Amino acid sequence: MDAAAPYLTGPADPAAAGRVLGPVTGLVDAAGWLYAHWYLLAAAIAVCWGVCELVVRRLAGTASAQRMALELVSTRHFDPSAEEIFRRGVQLARACRAMPWWAPRRAKAVQIRLRADGSTPLRYRIEGPAGGERLLSITPFGPDVTVERALPIADKPRDHVVRAEFLLRGKPTAPLREVPLTPDPLQPLVDAVADLRAELGDLAEIRLDIQRAPKWALRARRLQLMGAARRAEHREAQRSARWLRQDASGIEDSLGWQLQQLLSDKPSSVAGRRLVMPPVPRRVDPAEALGKLAEDDHLVRIQLLVMCASNTAGRAQARLAQLQAAFDVFGSRSRWAMRGWRLGPWRIGADHWPTRRGFERRWNLGHCQPPRPNWVRLEELTGLLKPPTVHCRLPVLASDLPTFELGKPALLLQGIYRAPDGRERLVATYAEETLFEVGTGKAGGGKTERALAQAIGWAHAGGGLVFVDPHRDSWPRALPFLAHEMLMPRIALIDLGGLGPNPRVSSWNPLGMHHGQAAHEVVEAIADAYASALAWDDATAPRALTILTAALTVLVAINEAACQASRPQDQATLFHIRALLTDAAFRTAALTAVAAQLDEETRAWWQAVFPTLPNDTFAVVLNPITRLAANPITRAFPGQPTGVYNIRTAMDTRMVVWVCPGDNGPTDRLLTALLARDLLRAARSRRDTPQEKRVPFRPYFDELITLTGAAPETIAAMFEDLRKYKCHIHGMTQLLSRLPTPVRLSLLQNASTLATTAGSKSAIAPITAEWGDDPGPDRIATMERFEHYVSMNVHGRRIGPIQLRGPHLDDAFATLARPQQAGALQRAAHANAQALPLDQLTERAAGQLGRVAAFLAAHSPADAAVHLPKEKNEWT
After folding, report:
1. I need a labelling partner for 336 at 20 to 30 A (CA). Which of 21, 312, 752, 754 fits?
2. β-pairing, 464-468 with 697-701?
3. Cβ(430)–Cβ(205) under 8 Å?
């Protein structure tokens, strides 16, 4: 025992103790030193963090320089399903990773840019890694969305700029509100920027950055949420137990319970009643506790930045407030809230230190580095993953529909558009794109007033037109607004209404050759007009067409000879067809005088076929001419040898011609058919002029039902052919269904502009059917007077249908009104048309047969004769 004592009680080895305590002492001393010099440690950590941040920023900036941009443009029929939008979101999330391996996470993002600057309602762009271009260029949206490579946008500096960053607030596991696809979820944002004004420098842009959620951060967040849920359940169980014990104690202390115990025969039960079983904490359900963060699939982190600017004080701040209200639509238990603090009237946010510099860096480089996780599922972003759809009501901006300027020939007035902010402006289409126009609606709805405003604006811009109005009401209405000195030399009035005891009437010779027309074109035009007005064709009236064509050929040859002899005043007219067919002496003189100008086949017909025709053959040809001759107006106007009316010259010299053909009787229909066919012939004759030198000309046809009743095939041919010759038709009618089928089909097929006022649903239905019944007949039928729905072509795409108010002349062109000069314009219009008193023209027309016969007698070759057999069919 003594021998072992030294091992048990002897002193410890100093060297060993030093080896054990040395490191501990060193750590204690180092901790003490660091505690005393903590600022050095903080400085070292700050330096390391700064160096790492500098390296990361450099790498992120290098990676951001390799980004590309795509612009998505949707058609008006774009209507995607929720599945198509979800697949697009999956593509965006996948494209985030198309970056070099060394790129920091903040650069691995795809950005959706929604931009409005007054030039377009809302531009939809996607910017992301260059490696993701192939993936993002092919969308699941099909042909309704066009994807184009976009160029960088360079913004001019604005005087006033406001910035904002939106963060998710509320319950972090709760989703945003599920916004339906109808109406478009983008509609609140579109409405917020609908009143942007480019001339004031207004700009609003929203940038939504999307990137994959980091898994380590998700795991940490899930552990935190699960721990918080368990603690909440424990606290709830403890609270319930406490309340349970308090309830039990309260019962035991109550007077009723004490009396019950005194009266009870079982005092042993008292102890048992005092036992209280505390509730067990409920098991935490991960799906309930984690909410939208329970699964990794389709979970992304987002960053939402907004910038508004303007050159006018206050407009940028107001725009930001509108966008903030628009984002409230997406809010539920989780919502978008603007980052910052409010101190009374001031708000400290992205526009102020210390967050402004970071905002601008992320804005310029496209880095996704939100201060909060902002985790959402792709389903929550459905409304922002696509361009505007068919269910989005887009505003009409000046870039979509230009503002009308009086005197500018490139623009054609369409109506008054009321913007979402209440401002009104006269809108127009481009004249070169407005080829044919159709206006329908009930009587008094404003379609003629709108056409008059358009025609007056076109005339003041230097354009040529002919306004055909069977009722003549448009002329006195337009008279004060055309009574300008510069316009008077260009305006002519052809009034066949016969107002007054001795009206002034212009003159026209449909057979006249003094204007240099081609003979075969004149013959064809008149024969076709006859056939159209009288419903002739090769099956029902072949003989009548043959006789008429042969007679016209001879008369046109006479007129050619008269013009070559410098005697245009001796030309024949339509009324000489009677003499040619019924007067043997006149016929023999005519055929003898022009025998050399007629082809062999025509001479053979007159020699061999004509004498064999029965006596009653000519009635069908002469009856319409007899009706024309019975009316003094229709006898005088086309019965002059050298008519002034020449629509081809009016086209080429930019004349403004008002034609009032009269009533809708059989005689007037024939004259209307002749005028319409002459217009078609004159327009087609412009093929002798190079296309770039053809002057645009616009015929306006009021009351198409009346005009097409006389010349349906002619009007249909105008809508089909005249575009090539820069002759653009504008037609107005009350009912499309009453138009002949060829006219209606050609009109709807080629119309650049369709317009309708209010009317019955059955009358409006053909127009709304062309618009896909959006708007429908029910809506249009209840519009107020002078309101129109109009669809137009601008820059090759259709605008509308949008609601316009028809321009009222007294309001839109009040500054043009010159009522005191209306009389001077009336006299100038008659003078330009060389209108003479009716009795004077009637006298001249009555003596024309003698002058033509004298010319034929004087110019018949002595050695030329057409030998006709003895005639047995003299007209009696």
Report:
1. 312
2. parallel
3. no
